[in-house]
Design goal:
The protein is mainly β. The protein has one helix at residues 4-14; strands at 27-32, 38-41, 52-56, 64-69, 78-82, 88-91, 102-106, 115-121, 124-128, 134-137, 148-152, 161-165. The chain has a single domain (4-165), classed as Trefoil (Acidic Fibroblast Growth Factor, subunit A) (Trefoil), CATH 2.80.10. The chain is 7% helix and 37% strand.
């Protein structure tokens, strides 16, 4: 059960012939919002303000994130989401926020940097913070300000993200 998410990501994005890769090995993905825009770690990561945008229409280096198994032994794998600069996304305050929501300057994978990807099928996932809230791409994506909230308690369209992996 623990490796089911990584296996489904690998199968959906790379095809079953690539499943021989270790199921919990880091994998690089772009994260697309409900509106079809991509999540961007501004500056490649390392920020506490103007951290994320959701207005990218193509995948560049700042739109690539590496999913890293936290190794904490939970039945559902918790992942660190590492930016291209090697920093982790942090759900400030464990989640549940509408302001100062995400930072990208963490150098270690601690609790606030752990996210659970909830499979909704067909490569679509909800991203859950350590406190059980879901990330929301405000407006479904396409924004440079008021981009992400972490206070959703249920999964609607703005909480759905598609992972495009295997770069």
């Amino acid at each position: 059960m623990k490796t089911a998410l990584m296996l489904s990501l690998l199968i959906l994005t790379l095809g079953s012939s690539h499943v021989s890769q270790a199921a919990n090995a880091p994998i690089t993905c772009a994260i697309r919002t409900y509106s079809g825009h991509y999540l961007t770690a501004v500056g490649g990561g390392g920020r506490t303000t103007d951290v994320l945008h959701t207005d990218a229409t193509r995948i560049g280096s700042w739109e690539k994130f590496t999913l890293v198994d936290s190794g904490d032994g939970t039945p559902n794998i918790r992942y660190g989401i590492r930016t291209v600069n090697g920093r982790y996304l942090t759900a400030v305050g464990r989640g549940g926020r509408t302001e100062d929501v995400i930072h990208s300057d963490a150098t270690q994978l601690l609790d606030w940097e752990k996210f659970t990807l909830i499979s909704l099928g067909y490569g679509v996932y909800a991203i859950q913070t350590i406190d059980g809230h879901y990330l929301t791409a405000m407006g479904g994506g396409g924004r440079r300000v008021d981009v992400i909230h972490s206070n959703a308690t249920r999964i609607d369209n703005w909480e759905k993200f598609r992972f495009i992996c295997g770069f």
